[in-house]
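Appendix B. One record, verbatim.
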Amino acid sequence: MSTHEPPAAFSWLNLRAELTGKQARVLIDGASGTARRGRVLAIIGPSGAGKSTLLQALAGRLDRSSKLRLSGTLAPPPSRPGAFVYQEDAFFSRLTVAETLRFAAALRAAQSTSVADVLAAMGLAEVASSAVGGGKVRGISGGERKRLAIGCALLAVDGRAPLFADEPTSGLDSFQARRIVEAIGRSARGGDGRAVLLSAHQPSARLLECFDDVLLLGAAGRTLFLGPTAELLPALERATGATRPPLLSPAEWALDIASVDPDAAEASKARVARLALRWREATAEATARLVEEAPFAPLAPARQSGWSAQLGWCLWRSWRQSGGFAAPSLLAMRVVGSVVPGLAFGCIWFDLPAGRGSLKARVGLLQVLANFVGVTAAMKAVRTLQDGEGACVRRERAAGALRLGAYFFGKVAAELPVTLLLPALLACVTHPLAGLACPLPVLVALLALEAMAASALGLLAGAVAPSLDIGLELTKALTTLSTVFGGLYFDAATLPRPLRWVPRASIVRVAWDGAVAGELAGLGGEEEELGVEG
């Protein structure tokens, strides 16, 4: 390594990734190279060349499976993940830009970069108080979201940890794309310097100039070039013996050379293989020597902030995101969603007469209340981990920043007031209109506990389901079973003996049993009068 070259952050030698089984194919074929501190390395190549796969493999974010084999050498071995920016952004939509960055910073025990510095470096100071947005919440632009994602990633690690960005300019106009890359460049050259690796899909000529180094991947994940951007065209012209057509930008011509033309498949495959072999022979010795001998500066493991500190921050974030009493319009909609059904139930079962003659109607109303609370609480909760929050939490966990226990208890505590309020309103409206005999505090407590249990069931379905549609269907099936075994629709004694445990697992059944017992106690009757088990 010459003395004027920046210090190496890490290197990789003969990195190979392949799928096995029915869809067997090579994703990365013997990639070797070096990323240097203080420089931006762009991975370019045609679609399907393995740009994202290589980036994720280097970052330690490649999802391992029995069908994916990864081999090769990384120096130094990745002891912890670096900062990683995904193609798809995931944020808590109701938080502001500044709040999102403050939370990312709070997950770490010590920070080498302040939130104010990141806001300035990413050009986000003017939108610091704007909601991030997403889904039904209006927020900042796509380019600002990308810069926010980079800022959050930088706050998650120390100042020397590498930054990986998977196609951060995709979907943006040329001006916004250039701003993104310039912001990334400032993060690379700031402080002690960090290595920055990003993948780019067909960058423009002006955007290509923003990259310090370029790694060109050919078909089947072969490395065709790695070096300073200014040397890309001369190297390709020497290797191919051709000259770039004047109407093609440098990146377009490089991608044409690296691609397989379906109309001339054999010739283009042979060209890519020849270029890959030439590059491997020219650089293998130098790369191997660097992997073996380069003095890589070790990075101290980033420490998470304390459990109690993270609990407080997760409680605050979940409260802001769920709306709580801080979002009057959302809270008002939820209150209406409980009061209006309560009025409807109260009018349908209005002023039930006391005595044995109204037992059937009273038990039926209690069953309806239990069904309504269980289904609505579960269906609301299943969306929580499917509306961006789940992806955001998984990424924070993958970065080693978030404590799972702090997130879980913080979320439960944040949503508890509203979870208890809504069934309480339903009971308080229905109870006096229908003239129920079950003490009101008992009915409120039973429905509130049922809502908490149903919310947990919905969260479970949302966590295990790969998509919102599947999560909704799974929740629908679970709540239907809970309703069917809710107590009123059959005699448990008639069930086959192997299934007699199922009603005891029904959330609706437990709430209904308690409400019926309270109703009978209020009327002064016995459960046997109804012909059901207590």
